[in-house]
Design brief:
The protein has 329 residues and is α/β, with parallel strands linked by helices. The protein contains twelve helices and eleven strands. The chain is 36% helix and 18% strand. Helix 1 packs parallel to helix 2 and helix 10 runs antiparallel to helix 12. The N terminus is likely disordered. It binds beta-D-ribofuranose (BDR) and calcium ion.
């Protein structure tokens, strides 16, 4: 099977999605559901971010059922390690899913401590098995996991996270939301010695859906298309996206990078984050100076650019394929 970075995968890629759904997290889950022949989704864990932990966890349960994803959903940390949480209802709406109202699932949580759940899951893997972590929210759960249980590191192949930026921010002039929410957790993750791909704003701002595409999804009269269109429609009209006329679907990027690396332009770097209390709190620092460092130190990749057209094609195709697989067409 063709998969990550042009490599032919004989086995599915084992992933854990750690998320705060959230409109774009919800589309990331749809993208993962559409690609289940490539991804073996071991768990969906939640973290307070776009909305409260109760709301994002409710959304994760409802979304997984709606997308036909039979995976454990586990509740995680309600907010950052050292601070009170900030939420983003202005972008994601009161429920976290914009205008979309999903049928309430009768599913129950597989656990209410994502950190402990991930530890058990990772340590329970076979000798040769490794997992790719996909955080699309603040890095609180992953930071705590690595700090409390460093023995899991050998079971993590890499961490592909949505967050940060080499240049500029969205929540402040310098910082991106997921990293700004919990820079202390990000610091732990960046210094864990695990290979990392930073899917930050430099690339994700180009990974958009247009007003027309969103309207077509909403008006498609089909289950997945309408739900995704209604989610992104809110996000488009109520967040800073409204000034651009397009909506950035940030959280799909780490998953798409695993399957279609050709969409993105990566650059090798060492990652760090500003945890000071000043105006640059939460800014990611990407050290691209390869001439200063040994090759093995440069264990981060930063996605610097993306092909918007290809992103749209792959995402919209995945949404329609999911629709077809669910309706048995
Ligand atoms: C990130 O912040 C959240 O609001 C989105 O879900 C995404 O993960 C973009 O900065
Ligand atoms: Ca998110």
């Amino acid at each position: 099977m063709y998969g990550s970075r042009g490599i032919i995968y004989m086995e599915k890629i084992k992933i854990i999605i750690d998320c705060d759904p959230g409109v774009d997290d919800a589309l990331a889950l749809a993208y993962a559901a559409a690609n289940q022949e490539i991804f073996d989704i071991l768990a969906v864990t939640t973290v307070g971010g776009n909305q409260t932990i109760e709301k994002v966890t409710r959304n994760a349960l409802d979304l997984t059922e709606f997308y036909g994803l039979d995976v454990p959903v586990v509740k995680g940390m309600d907010g950052p390690i050292t601070r009170e949480p900030l939420y983003a209802p202005e972008s994601h709406g009161a429920s976290g899913l914009g205008y979309c109202v999903l049928p309430e699932s009768s599913r129950t949580l597989a656990g209410d401590n994502a950190v402990l759940y991930m530890r058990e899951l990772l340590l329970g893997l076979g000798e040769e098995e490794k997992v790719v972590l996909i955080p699309t929210g603040p890095l609180t759960n992953i930071g705590l996991l690595l700090k409390l249980f460093p023995e899991v590191k050998s079971r993590i192949k890499e961490i592909l996270f949505m967050g940060g930026a080499a240049c500029g921010g969205n929540v402040t002039p310098a910082a991106e939301f997921n990293i700004y929410e919990d820079p202390e957790a990000a610091k732990i993750v960046f210094h864990a010695g695990i290979p990392m791909v930073m899917c930050g704003l430099d690339a994700t701002m180009k990974c958009t859906l247009t007003r027309n595409q969103v309207a077509k999804l909403s008006q498609s009269g089909r289950k997945i298309g309408k739900a995704c269109g209604d989610m992104v429609g809110y996000y488009l009209e109520n967040s800073t996206n409204k000034y651009r006329g397009v909506a950035s679907i940030h959280d799909v990027v780490p998953l798409m990078y695993l399957i279609h690396p050709e969409v993105f332009t990566p650059k090798r770097a060492i990652l760090d984050v500003d945890c000071s209390e000043g105006v640059s709190r939460g800014t990611t620092i990407c050290d691209f100076r390869w001439w200063k460092h040994d090759e093995e130190e440069m264990n981060g990749l930063v996605l610097m650019d993306a092909d918007s057209n290809l992103f749209q094609e792959y995402l919209i195709t995945a949404l329609y394929e999911l629709e077809e697989s669910l309706s048995g067409e």
